[in-house]
Design goal:
It is a single chain. The chain is α/β, with parallel strands linked by helices. It folds into three domains: about 80 residues, Winged helix-like DNA-binding domain superfamily/Winged helix DNA-binding domain (Arc Repressor Mutant, subunit A, Orthogonal Bundle); about 100 residues, D-Maltodextrin-Binding Protein, domain 2 (3-Layer(aba) Sandwich); about 100 residues, D-Maltodextrin-Binding Protein, domain 2, CATH 3.40.190. Helices cover about 40% and strands about 20% of the residues. The chain contains ten helices and twelve strands. The strands form three sheets. Strands 4-3-5-12-6 form a five-stranded mixed beta sheet. A five-stranded mixed beta sheet has the order 9-8-10-7-11, sandwiched between helices. Helix 5 links the parallel strand 3 and strand 4. Helix 1 crosses helix 4. The N and C termini lie far apart (about 50 Å).
Length: about 300
């Protein structure tokens, strides 16, 4: 005999869609206390939480909750088709991939192509965004896996290292450092710098200098990698970035030179991350294996 009714599955799905008990209760035409009590009974029966209660910011879906909701929605769809056989059949599954915006031009297309070839029955969508947005998307269950740098994540995330990335200094051909084979963090303090305006990225770079008791002068915080490269190409300073496109020219056609930054501690890991530390949903685990094999030697 089944413990959970279809109505209880509807409760969980409605909370997942709306992100709050009050909104879900209105949609379902039940009181909020009754819905909260029903959810508590469901979670108690399952033995794990489906949502994280966050005071003042609604309900965040746990990884187990996301998997449960996907199965529940499929079950409800099948039940609806029994009543109305004319209803269309849903797809086999969905996977939502996130990617840090500066990494996306280098790895995202290859990742999508590989996933769609290996698991064609799964609909793969993607989102290229900044660190904070990716972390938020993972926590809320809007992103299943993210390709990003290992910045800003706490112990509530599972990480798998794909490869190490090293930063480079970007200068124009007339710059005093243009003829060097490499640059050190200490070398860079002699010149105005151009960093990303992305908060965690800039903070990480500045921390590298601070750990060596160095004080850099930041002249610009660029809104994108190509703005950073263009500013460097026009002599506005030395650009510093982990992303290093193959082109030796900026978007506006100016020549640039990239120098590897030699300090060993400047290396940063590119990782595959998911929210939660327990076993992954089988579909997510399969996608993680595919991406690890594909990008691990990037």
């Amino acid at each position: 005999m089944l413990y959970l009714s279809l109505r209880q599955y509807e409760y969980v799905c409605a909370i997942g869609r709306s992100g709050s008990l009050s909104a879900a209760a209105q949609q379902l035409h039940v009181s909020q206390p009754a819905l909260s009590a029903a959810l508590a009974k469901i979670e108690d029966h399952l033995g794990h939480p489906l949502f994280i209660r966050r005071r003042g910011s609604g309900m965040a879906v746990t990884p187990q909750g996301r998997a449960f909701i996907e199965e529940a929605e499929a079950l409800l769809a099948r039940a609806a088709r029994l009543e109305d056989p004319s209803r269309p059949h849903p797809g086999a599954g969905r996977l939502n991939l996130g990617c840090f915006v500066d990494l996306a031009p280098f790895v995202l297309a290859r990742a999508l192509h590989g996933l769609r070839g290996a698991i064609p029955e799964v609909t793969v969508t993607y989102r290229a965004d900044r660190f904070e947005a990716l972390i938020s998307g993972l926590i809320k269950g809007q992103i299943d896996l993210a390709i990003t740098y290992d910045l800003g994540m706490d112990a509530g995330f599972t990480r798998e290292k794909l490869y190490d990335s090293r930063p480079c200094a970007i200068v124009n051909p007339e710059h005093p450092m243009a003829g060097a084979a490499r640059a050190s963090l200490a070398d860079l303090t002699a010149f105005p710098l151009i960093l990303s305006e992305e908060g965690l990225s800039a903070q990480h770079m500045l921390n590298l200098f601070r750990r060596k008791s160095l004080t850099p002068f930041v002249a610009h915080r660029a809104a994108s990698l190509e703005i950073l490269r263009s500013l460097a190409a026009h002599g506005e300073g030395v650009g510093v970035s982990y992303a290093n496109p193959a082109s030796a020219r900026s978007y506006d056609g100016k020549p640039i030179i990239t120098l590897p930054i030699s300090d060993p501690e400047a290396a940063e890991s590119v990782i595959l991350a998911r929210h939660g530390t327990g076993p992954a949903d089988p579909q997510i685990a399969l996608a993680q294996t595919i991406l690890s094999e594909m990008l691990g030697q990037a």
